[in-house]
Amino acid sequence: MMQTSSTLFSFGALLKTFRKRQHLTQQQLAEVVGVHRGTLIHWEQGNFLPESKTVVLELARHLHLDDQEARHFLEASLTALTPHWLVPLPRNLFFTGREEILEALHAQLRSERTVALMQSSALHGLGGVGKTQIALEYAYRHALEYSAVFWIGAETAESITSSLLRVASVLQLPGRVDHDQQRVVAAVQHWLSTHGQWLLIWDNVEDLALLDHFLPVSRSGAILLTTRCQTLGTLARGIDLAPMGQEEGMLFLLRRAKVLSPEATSEQMHLLAAHVPTQYQAVAELVTELGGLPLALDQAGAYVEETHCGLPAYLDCFRTHQATLLRQRGESARDHPASAAATFTLAVTAIAERHPVVKDLLQVCALLQPDAIPEEIFRLGGEHLGPTLEAICCDALEWDRVVGLACSYSLLARQPEEQTLSMHRLVQAVLLDGTGEGEQKQWQRRVIEALNAVFPDVQAMPEPGARKRCELLLPHVLLCLQQVEAASEDLACAFLAFKGARYLYERGRYAEAEPLFRRALQIREQALGLHHPEVAQVLHKLAILSWQRGNYAQAEPLFRRALCIQEQAPRPDHPEVASLLHNLALLFWSQGNYAQAEPLYQQALCLWEQTLGPDCPELARPLNNLANLYADQGRYAEAEQLFQRVLRIQEQIRPGHPDVAFPLCNLAEVYQEQGRYVEAEPLLQRALRIREQTLGPDHPEVAHPLESLAMLYREQGIYEQAEALFQRALHIREQTLGPDHSLVARPLTGLASLSCDRGHYAQAEALFQRALLIREQQLGPHHPVTARTLHDLALLRQKQGNLKEATSFAERALHIRLQSLGDAHPKTIATQTLYTQLVQEQEAEREPTLEHLRTLLKARGWSVHLKKRHGKPYVYATRKAGQHTRSRYLAPLSNPVACLAAASTLPDAKEV
After folding, report:
1. What does DSSP assign to residue 243?
2. Which residues make beta-bridge pairs with 77?
3. pTM for this model (two decimals)
C-alpha cells in the first residue's frame, strides 16, 4: 500500500510516542544514544532530523521497536521534510554496500548541478541484481535534497499512467479527478516542466520508447531509470550493475537471515569466523553458489528466517534442491515478490517471443561454464548447434545482432577484447530447470559436437596459439563431459574426452588426464568392441601416461594389450605397431631392463625401415633412444655412432629444424660422460642456437639445451655461467608450463646441486625441497624421478652431518628404486651403496657400549669389571701382573664416552 508524507506520522511525533511507551525521559534516552538532551528535544519538536541512518537505527534499538515500527521510523526520518513524496516501497533495513554506485548516482543527479542534457541516469543489469533497491536507497538517502520525489512503475504504458495519476493526487493538481487520463498526465508533465529540483524514478523500464510519450519536454529535475536494457542511446548515462562482491554479499545475507543485526559491520561479521566457523564458511560458500545475486541472497535469508534452519543447513539443501529453492520467494517478500527463477524465466520468455534465435544462444551458454565462453565455439562449431544458430553463426553481422539482443536484456555479457561471453550461474540453473529432459539431451549432444569440432588436436601442437585456445576451451569441455550421462554417451564424447586428455597430458596434468583417457576407452570399447584399433589408440596413451607417472606395473599390460590388438589388425606392419614396440622398450629401459629393451628397439626400427625407408624422420626418435640405452650401459662408441646417424637424418631431411637439437644434446652428453668437454660445448651451443632461432628465446624446448649446457659448466667448475643458464631455464619452464609442472623440477635440482657444490647448503635444501614437492605432487611419491631428488637430499644431509635424516632420505629412495627399477639397476645400486655407507657412519658415531669396551680392552690384555660405590655401578679395568692383579678406575657406567676415553690411556699389557 502506498503512503505519502501526509499519511505518515512525523518523525518527532513517532519518537515521542515510542519514548513514552518505554517510560524514558528525554535525558535518559539522550544519554544512552550519546547526544545532548537539547538535540533530542529538537528532534521531537521537528526542528531538524538525525543526520544519519545509523543514529535512527540506534534510537530504534534502544526504543525496542519491531521490524515494522523500525521501518516506519526510518521512513519518517527521511520524508518528513520533503513536501511531495510518492515512493510506494518502504526502505530496506537490510540494504548493504553499493556505496560506490550510490556515490556515482549522486554525482550525476545531485540537484545543485546545472540542468544539462544528460541529467538522467539509468541503473541497468540482470534481473534481481538490485536495481530497484539501489534506486530506493538513493531516494530515501537523498530525499531532503529534492523538492519532490516520485516513483513511477514503468513496466507498461498502463502502469506509467496509473503512477502519474497518483502523482497528480500528491501534487493536488486542479483536474486530478478528470476522467480524461491524458489530460491529468499532461498536467503532471506541465508541473514537472515548470518546477525544479525534483527526482523522478522510473522503475523497471521494459520499453525505452514508452518514455518518449511521458517524459516532460523541459526537464528541470533529475531522472533515474532502472532497466534490464543496456542500450540507452542519449536517453541517460548508464551504470551497469554487477552482482555483489564476496564481502558485501556475506554481510547482506547475514543481516537478512537475522544472524546479525541490520546495522552490523564487516568487523562483526568477521568475528563469526572465530566464534562460529561453520556458519561463516557456509555464508561464504552460499554467496559463491548464488553468484552474489542480491535477489537470490534475499531469498536465502528469508527462507532461513522463516524456517529457522540455519545457513549451513540451507547450503546443504540448496546443493540438492537448487531448482526448488530458486522458485521459493518466501512469505514476507513484498518489495520484490517474484523469485529469482520467476524473474529470469520471465526475461527469457520475453526475449524468446521477440527473437527466438536468442533462446537457442542462451540454451547453449547454459550448458557451458558461466565465465569466459569463447565465441569461437559458435563461429567455428555453429554447424553442430542446430539449423537456426548455424545460419546466425556464419554471418558476422547477424551474430553481433543476436549477441547484442541477449546483452541488451542483461542475460549475457560480452567481453569484446577477449571475444568471450559470460552468463550468471543462476540464469543457467533456471534455463536448465526449464528445459525438458529430451530437449536438454539434444542440446548436450550439439554442444559436445561443437566443442569436438573446435578443440585443437594437440598431438604435435602445430597450430600457433593452440595451447591458449585449449586452455580457454578446457573448462567447458570438462563441464560438458561431466554433465553427459554414461548411458547417453556416443563417440563424439569419446573423441572430445580423448583430445582433452591429450592436452592435459601435454601440460603435465597427468592426474586430470587419466580419468578422461579411461572414459574415452570405456566408450570406444562399448561402441566399437574390445579389439578395435581405436581402442588400442587409447590403451597406448594410457600406457604412456602410466609410464610417465612411474606406474610401470600398470603400464606394461596396457602396452601389451594395445600391441596385441594392433598386431591382429589388417595391417600388422602399421607404424602404430612400431610405435608400441618402441614405447614398450622405453618402459623396460626406464626400469634398467636393458636386455629386454634392446631387441624391442631393434624390432621397432626394422618395421619403420621396411614401411618408411631407412632415412625417414620417424627413425630419428627410436635411434636416439637406442643410443641413450647404449650410453647408459657405458657403450659410448655405439651410442656415438647412432647419435651421429640421427643427426645425419635430421640434417638431410630438415636442416635447422628444432628436432636437430635432440641428437646434438645427447651426443654432447655422451662426450661429457667421457670428460670430452671441449667437444661437448660447441654441440650444446649449436643446439641452443637452433632452438632459439626457430622457436624463439622463451619457448619451453629451449630449456633443454640450456640445462645441458649448465650441467657441463657445473662439472667444469664454471659456476657463475652455470647458474645463469639454470636460472634462465627455470624462468622459461615456469612461464610456459606453470610453477608446478614436473619439468620445472629439472632446473631446480640443477640449481640445488650447484648450490651444494658451492657450500650454500641452506639454499640447496630449499631448492631440493621445492623440487621434491613438485615431483611428489605431479609424478607421485613413488616415482623413480622422485627417488632421484630423495637421493640428492640424502647426499646433502650427509654433507651437513645430519646422518639420521640422510639415512631416512636414502632409505625412501632405495625403496622406490627397488620397487620400480629392480635391484640390478645402476641407480638402485648407487642408492644401496649410499644407504649402506650412511648406516655404517651412524654406527661409528654411536656411543660405545660396555660390550664394545670389553672387546676393545681384551685385545690389549685388560678385562672389564663393575664395582658398586654408593649404590651406583662404576667401571674398572684389571690385568694380572705376575702374582698380583692390577686395577684401574675408568668412569661411571652411565658415562660410556668417558670410559672409552680413560681406556684409551691404558698401556698394553705387553708394554708393562
Report:
1. P
2. none
3. 0.66
